[in-house]
């Protein structure tokens, strides 16, 4: 199954079961094992589980492979691993708490500034 087809299948499955706040991140340039991250929200734990099951079923029906699902027990945050596409489906409260969008932007910005030679990193404190 081609990447674009898999991504379209996931989005259609989420929209069919009334998933909302669907966002797709292109992580192909980052050093990760996947190329797309899809994040969606459900209204309740049961809704989150239903969204995850629908994604799994639609991808299988389209000929794709599902490598695993995590978090089905609680239903607050379910991760569906589709290989090059990873789908995070979560309750709005959990999504707000973890703020994955902010984490992903911080990941791109992390770099250690080079220290100038001869300049101390911080002034020494006198005792």
Question: Summary?
Answer:
The protein has four helices and five strands; from the N terminus they run αββαβββαα. It is of the alpha+beta class and 127 residues long.
Question: Can you offer a commentary on this structure?
Answer:
The radius of gyration is 19 Å and the shape is globular. It has helices at residues 3-16, 45-61, 92-98, 100-109; strands at 20-26, 36-41, 68-70, 77-81, 85-90. It is 38% helix and 21% strand. It has a five-stranded mixed β-sheet with strand order 1-2-5-4-3. Helix 1 runs antiparallel to helix 2.
Low-confidence stretches: 105-117
By DSSP, the count of extended strands is 5
Distance between the termini: 67 Å
| Helical amount | 25-40%
This entry's quaternary arrangement is single chain
Question: What is the molecular shape?
Answer: globular
Category from helices, strands and their pairing? alpha+beta
The chain-level mean pLDDT equals 81
The biggest sheet amounts to: 5 strands, mixed
Strand line-up of the largest beta sheet: 1-2-5-4-3
SSE topology:
Blueprint: H1 3-16, E1 20-26, E2 36-41, H2 45-61, E3 68-70, E4 77-81, E5 85-90, H3 92-98, H4 100-109
Parallel strand pairs: 2-5
Antiparallel strand pairs: 1-2, 3-4, 4-5
Summarize this structure as a short list of keywords or feature phrases:
five-stranded mixed sheet, 127 residues
């Amino acid at each position: 199954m081609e990447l674009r087809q898999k991504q379209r299948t996931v989005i259609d499955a989420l929209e069919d079961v009334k998933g909302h706040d669907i966002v797709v991140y292109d992580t192909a340039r980052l050093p990760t094992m996947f190329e797309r991250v899809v994040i969606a929200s459900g209204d309740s734990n049961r809704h989150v589980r239903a969204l995850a099951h629908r994604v799994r079923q639609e991808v299988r029906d389209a000929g794709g492979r599902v490598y695993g699902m995590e978090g089905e027990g609680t239903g607050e945050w379910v991760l569906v691993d589709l290989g090059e596409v990873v789908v995070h489906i979560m309750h709005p409260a959990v999504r707000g708490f973890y703020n994955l969008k902010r984490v992903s932007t911080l990941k791109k910005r992390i770099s250690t500034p080079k220290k100038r030679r001869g300049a101390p990193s911080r002034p020494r404190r006198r005792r």
